[in-house]
Amino acid sequence: MLKFSSNLLIICSILFISSCATTNKIDALKPEPDDATPLIYENTPSYINMPISVKLKDIENQTNASLSGLIYEDNSIEDDDIEMKVWKLAPITIKNEIGEKIKTILPLKAIVKYRIGTKKLGIEIYDTREFHLDGVVTLVSDVALINWKLNTKTELKSLDWNESPTMTVFGKNVPVTYLINPAVKLFKSKIEKKIDEAIAKSMDFKPNVLAALEKICVPFLMNETYESWLRIVPIEIYSTSAKLKNDTFVLDMGMKCNMETLIGKQPESKFNASKIILKPVTKIPEDITANIVAISTYQEASKIMTKNFAGQEFGSGSQKVKVQNVAIWHKKGKMIIALDVLGSVNGTIYLAGFPKYNEKTKEIFFDQLDYALDTKNKLMRTANWLAQGLVLKKIEQSCRYSIKPNLEEGQKSMMTYMRNYSPMQGVFVNGKMEDIQFQKIQLTNQAIIAFIKVKGTVSVSVDGLK
Fold first, then answer.
1. Which of 142, 203, 258, 341 suits a disulfide with 321, CB 3.0-4.6 Å?
2. CA separation for the pair 2, 22 (Å, rounded)
3. Is residue 62 part of a domain?
4. Residue 72's domain spans which residues?
């Protein structure tokens, strides 16, 4: 019985020792994070060229929408001895005129009351005559873009009567063409001004441009898996003068902006219409240069790297571990990677390395990756096999943060805004993008920041604006 008890004790001891040998608890000292530069970074502005074309037909449609029925009314005869009402009889026609001018043809009907008289010795003696006009006015306008508006300087060139102008005399309409033609100058400036005001009102680009920009500046999801968002923050808008080419107005518009890629939940838009100023320039480069800042918070990058380790075992035979969770942070210019492991060794092991970028694979990886000093010392005593270079090399392969999906999805998502994208009815955006080029990495106390450059072209056309 004593012999049996001794054998049982020996077996239990062996099992206990064996258990201790196969499962070790690593209690390495955590390298505490320190402060890097706060999340303030130098974002190189991007310049996006947007040549804009507007068809004369759209200007014509907008002007007709602005002017309908009674287009002018002056009911006071006391100030200038003229009382006048003008109606548009048919749709206005706007055409291209020689020398980058536009010609406006306005069918109209007018009733003009003209007062002739004097005031002597306190007695007012007046004779008021009423003229009925029915004809077609032809106006020619110089065109410029001023303060977001298509600005015209219109001059009445001719007035062709459909019917002979008449004057009411003793209740009868009497033709007075010979009197009316010289009298056209009395309301000439009023008609010219009215056309200028209608075109300026209908061709105010500011609401359209700002509405389109506001939609474009809402951060949009580039990659659902990596939860990456692109945010555009306008700084300034530039514009050249408008030029008339055939049946289309063309002007070059450019935007100076900051572009950011953020990871995590959808960020807020930073669009502020009140801070955007239109600056006139003589020339804008044809290509866009977009400098994008890709911001990967340590928390979000940790989640991505944890996915990299899913289902993997490291080691061989009975000496294996699985990584359950990954956390990363900054310390003295290096990245600390904390791996929570289960298996032959339980606990947290700490790695340290410098973040680098692989241009070919589009990955952020960690150069000179090694165990933190205290971790390495503990492993050498308790699990030397885990400290070996071969195992570390395999772990290192998963300690990568690929931004290739971000770049590809970002390029794909941005292209959806460049293939006849219509932020509003009648406005269409088209363009192309070249390869995205990586620039550099910057570490902060909250994130890894990657700087990326994109080149391409963008154009905006207006066709069927309502």
1. 341
2. 30
3. yes
4. 56-203
Count: domains in the chain: 1
Establish if 60 belongs to a structural domain: yes
Q: Is 140 among the domain residues?
A: yes
Name the residue type at position 253: M
Residue 80 inside a domain? The answer is: yes
Q: Are 284 and 49 in contact (CB under 8 A)?
A: yes
Instruction: Please name every residue paired with 174 in a beta bridge, in sequence order, or none if there are none.
Output: 167
Digit-coded pLDDT (tens) for 285-336 = 767 777 776 777 788 788 888 988 888 899 888 889 999 999 998 888 788 9
| Span 120-127, average pLDDT | 66
Q: Tell me which DSSP letter residue 248 carries.
A: E
pLDDT digits (tens, 9 = 90+) for 144-162: 766 667 778 888 888 887 7
| 136, two tokens | 């077609």
**Residue pLDDT, tens place only, 345-379:** 899 999 999 888 887 777 788 888 899 888 888 88
Q: How far apart are CA 75 and CA 111, in angstroms?
A: 11
Residue identified by tokens 């940790």 is 302
Beta bridge mates, 156 = 139
Q: Is 410 exposed, middle or buried (0-12, 13-18, 19+ CB in 10 A)?
A: buried
Q: Which of 299, 354, 351 is nearest to 323 (CA)?
A: 351
- Alpha-carbon distance of 199 to 394, in angstroms, equals 69
Alpha-carbon distance 355 to 369, whole Å?
9
Residues 6+ apart with CB under 8 A from 169: none
Q: What is the pLDDT of residue 256?
A: 84
The 3-state secondary structure of 297-334 reads EHHHHHHHHHHHCCCCCEEECCEEEEEEEEEEEEECCE
